Amino acid sequence: MSVLADPRAFRRSAAGICLIVAPLVYVVAIVADPALRQGGDTVGVYGKYPEQVSVSASLLHWSWVLLLPGIVGMIHLIRERGVIFGHIAGGLAFLGIVNFSGLMLGDFFYSRLERALPAAQGAMLADQAFADPGARYGFQIPGFVGLLGLFLLGLALAYARRGPWWAPFAMLIGILVGPVFPFGTIAGGALYLGGAGVIGLGMLRMSDDEWSGEPAQPSGNLANTR
Predict the structure, then answer these.
(1) Which residues span the membrane (predicted)?
(2) pLDDT tens-digit map of 50-93
(3) What number of other Cβ atoms are within 10 A of residue 226's Cβ?
(4) CB-based contacts of 183, cutoff 8 Å, min separation 6
(5) Nearest-CA neighbor of 97 among 198, 159, 175, 173?
(6) What percent of the chain has pLDDT over 70?
(7) Fewer beta carbons within 10 Å, N or C terminal of the chain?
(8) Would you state the torsion angle of the CA atoms of residues 48, 49, 51, 57, taken in this order, to the nearest 10 degrees?
(9) 58: three-class secondary structure by DSSP
């Protein structure tokens, strides 16, 4: 049976691979962002380098999207211990990360406004749009709540004995310090990859029976006895 036709193997592999790939895409996106690389006063930078902004914003979007199957996989592994807490944390993480993904569209608007208008005026208009209550309470705050949910989900996974206790700390710190180019990007990328990667590798290495929570089937003729 191919992996695509095997629900247990496909879902386990997809979740594990996404937890490894998402941090890598996140770091590449940060490196591609011209404003983060420059630091300091970044007004006009997005308008000056639209191609780089397009690449960076698209990759950041996909770094959050790729994290979602991993979150679902983490929730799936929480059984018997901390199930309710894991479901709440996982829901916060999933919904919040979706909001972060949507925020990446803002980079395109900054870039276009800084080209169509004087850079300072275009950046001011984009800032005003993001200061709108709908943008703040509908996207920005839920996005950061999602990061908190991801951290709590990692703790729930550790409590369920499905991941190391340090992984959620590494993931959260890595995500937050990653935009501080270049040293934060290096250290944060390593932490994010280490925390998410160790959970993802654990998923890839476990058996399908362990993933599904089912007891291993006995081999030989005993499997056919009733």
Answers:
(1) 12-32, 59-78, 85-105, 137-158, 165-183
(2) 999 999 999 999 999 999 999 999 999 999 899 999 999 999 99
(3) 2
(4) none
(5) 175
(6) 94
(7) C
(8) -110
(9) helix
What was the pLDDT predicted at 226? 42
Distance CA 207, CA 201 (A): 12
Q: Within a 13 Å sphere around the CA of 94, how many CA atoms are in the beta-carbon half?
A: 15
Structure-block tokens of residue 185: 């990007």
CB-CB contact of 59 with 88 (8 Å): no
Give the separation between CA 92 and CA 113, rounded to whole angstroms: 33
How buried is residue 180: exposed, middle or buried, by Cβ count under 10 Å (0-12/13-18/19+)?
A: middle
**Percentages helix, strand, coil for the chain, rounded to the nearest 5?**
80, 0, 20
- What is d(CA 132, CA 42) in angstroms, rounded to the nearest whole number? 21
End-to-end CA distance of the chain: 26
Average pLDDT of the chain to the nearest whole number: 91
Is residue 223 pLDDT above 80, yes or no? no
Integer-rounded Cα Rg, in Å, for the chain is 20
**Residue where the block lists tokens 């983490």:** 74
pTM: 0.90
Q: How far apart are CA 39 and CA 12, in angstroms?
A: 39
Q: Name, in order, each residue with C-beta under 8 angstroms of 77's C-beta and a sequence gap of 6 or more.
A: 157, 160, 162, 163, 203, 211
Place of tokens 């991801």: 150
Exposed, middle or buried by CB within 10 Å (0-12, 13-18, 19+), for 157? buried
> Can you read off the two tokens belonging to residue 88?
């709440």
